[in-house]
Amino acid sequence: MNTIYYQSTNSQIVYIIVDKTGTYQNNWTREIIKNISDFNISNIWSKGYSVLVGLDEDSLLKFAVDKKYSIAVVLSTGTDFINGDNFFKAVEVLCHSDFFITGHILDRKEAYYELHHQCYIINLLTYNDLGQPEIGQQELGAYHRQCIPQRSFENIHDDYTPLWISGGDDYKTFHHKLHGWNILSLAFEKDLPVQVFQDEFRHNKKYYYPDNQSEFLKHVSWVYAREKYCMEEHVHTSHTEHIEILENDFECVITPASGNWFVNYIDKQKPVTVIYYDYNVKALDYWKIHAPKIDNVSYHFVKIDLLGICNYSDIILKNRGKTIINLSNIFCYEGTSAFLSLQYRMAKENEMLANTPDDFYVLFNSRSCKGFYNTIHFGKNLQRTSITQLQKPTWHINQDWTI
Question: In the predicted model, what is the mean pLDDT of residues 221-238?
Answer without folding.
Answer: 92
